[in-house]
Amino acid sequence: MLYSFRDGKIRVSVKPYEEYLEFEISKAWFLGKAKGELGELILGEKCLKITFRFKKHEEKLKVR
């Protein structure tokens, strides 16, 4: 499943270049709290679950 995220909308391809679903999430409560980038989308019969990817901060080890 391919998707794109632009202008607060997620567009999910059902059939390439023919059919797609569009979800407006620009006013969703979680966007201000999510610091990562969009990850995997899980499309259910009645809902869309959005996962986010977070980058791990690498801590430098002190060498003695």
Task: Note down, in words, how this protein is organized.
With 64 residues, the chain is mainly beta. It has one domain. 0% of the residues lie in helices and 47% in strands. It is built from no helices and 5 strands. The protein has strands at residues 3-6, 9-15, 19-24, 37-43, 48-53. A 3-stranded antiparallel beta sheet has the order 1-2-3, with no helix packed on it. Strands 4-5 form a two-stranded antiparallel ribbon.
Instruction: Tell me the count of domains.
Output: 1
Q: Count helical runs.
A: 0
Percent of residues in helices: under 10%
Helix/strand-derived category reads: mainly beta
Mean pLDDT, all residues = 83
Overall radius of gyration: 16 Å
Query: How far is the N terminus from the C terminus?
Result: 50 Å
DSSP E strands, number: 5
- H/E element sequence: EEEEE
Low-confidence stretches: none
Please tag this protein with its features:
single chain; 64 residues; mainly beta; three-stranded antiparallel β-sheet; 47% strand
